[in-house]
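Folding Task

Wanted — backbone structure
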Amino acid sequence: MGGEVGGGGIRVVLAEDQTMVVEAFAELLNLQPDITVCATAKNGVDALAAVAEHDPDVLVADIEMPRGSGLDVAAELHRRGSRTKVLIVTTFARSGYLRRAMDAGVTGYVLKDAPIGELADALRKVHAGGTVVSAELALAAWDHSDQLTDRERELLRQVADGATNRDIARRLHLAEGTVRNYLSAAMAKLGARNRTEAAKAARERGWI
C-alpha cells in the first residue's frame, strides 16, 4: 500500500493491481484541483485497510484484483456501513458485474478506457450522492440479464474454484443429487454441455 497523502477536496483511495495503471491514474487525478489521491492499493485486503486508515470520500477500484475483487471490497464496505462511496473502473462490460456492483452498494461503474476527464466527472457525481453507469455497461446489462438463482451462482463459483460435486455437497450440506440438479439447471440456462463449461460461461458474463 502506498500513494501520496494530500489535503482538501475529494479524497480518494485507488485500488488496482497493475502498478503502471494505478500510478497513471493517481498522477492524472491529482492534477484535478478538487481531487486528492490519499493512498493506493494493489489488492482487496490492502484496499480495505487503506479505506479504514484514510477514510476517503471515494474508493476507485478495479474488479479483477487478487485477495478480493473490487466487488468483494464494495460488498464488505457496504456491510460495515462505511461512508466511503465506491466507483468501479473496469475493462469488462459484463452484465452480471453491473448487477453485483449495484447489490454491493456501488454507485459508479465506468470503463477503464474512458478519458480521465470522464473519470473525474464520475468521481464528482458519486461524491455528490449521484449514480454513474457508463452507456456501454448499461447496454450490456440490458442485453444479457442474469437468469441464475443465488444457489446456482454459489455452486458455479465452487465449480470454478475446482470443487467436485461431492465437495460442494459436503460444504453446503446438500445431497449430491441436489447439487447435480442445481448444476443441470444452470447448464441449461447457460447453454453449456457440462458443469465446467457452465462455470466458465457464467464467469465470462460476470454472473459469478
